[in-house]
Write a structure and sequence with these properties.
alpha/beta; Rossmann fold; 9 helices
């Protein structure tokens, strides 16, 4: 995931890790000569994150000036938000022209997730239990690839890449059975656990 971002982002750059938790990604990026601001709603987790760190809710206006960052990370964040489009609009505001946003969400179009939805009415990583979890664990907004790309484009971003992370063994096992019914979907989107989008604010 970070390799995808680094292909397009020169060092040093100022990066916002929105949903940083304890700051594991921020540490990796700082070792690559980037300056990273950690942001999270959970102040207890944020206390262990690298500094600077800001406790804030991504669903409200962020305490940063316009055009402040060269890149923003939204790693497993948007599915927790009531209005992902409003979040992307706020990210558009704080990114400099030409800035990048890297977002990941659960891949609800994977074969395993489709089968679970067929049998239970719930996608993978979405359930009544998830709806009643604390905010940092509450998955409320499924974002299949076409919807996610639509939201990015309506928020003013240009899509640079869309891919998935590691293969799900359950999805791979289902491939021979379900491939004819899913032929219209790009193969990687059927097998990966998380969906990854890299997008850019126009210059």
């Amino acid at each position: 995931m970070l390799r995808l971002l680094m292909k397009h982002l020169p060092a040093p750059s100022l990066i916002l890790d929105a949903g940083a938790a304890e700051g594991a990604l921020a540490l990796k990026l700082s070792h690559l000569n980037h300056t990273v601001v950690c942001l999270d709603i959970d102040i207890d987790r944020l206390k262990r994150a690298p500094k600077p760190a800001v406790c804030a809710d991504i669903q409200h206006p962020l305490p940063f000036r316009n055009n402040a960052f060269s890149a923003v990370l939204l790693v497993e964040v948007l599915e927790h938000c009531l209005n992902p489009f409003a979040v992307l609009q706020e990210i558009q505001r704080i990114l400099r022209p030409g800035g990048l946003v890297l977002a990941t969400v659960p891949n609800v179009l994977s074969l395993a997730s489709r089968l679970r939805f067929l049998l239970t009415g719930w996608f993978n990583l979405y359930s009544p239990k998830r709806l009643n979890a604390p905010p940092q664990h509450r998955h409320i907004f499924p974002l299949p690839a076409p919807v996610l790309l639509f939201l990015f484009e309506k928020a003013g971003f240009a899509i640079l890449d869309i891919c998935t992370d590691r293969l799900q063994r359950t999805s791979l096992a289902l491939l021979p059975l379900l491939l004819p019914a899913t032929a219209a979907t790009k193969l990687p989107l059927l097998l990966g656990r998380s969906l990854i989008v890299l997008a850019q604010k126009p210059e």
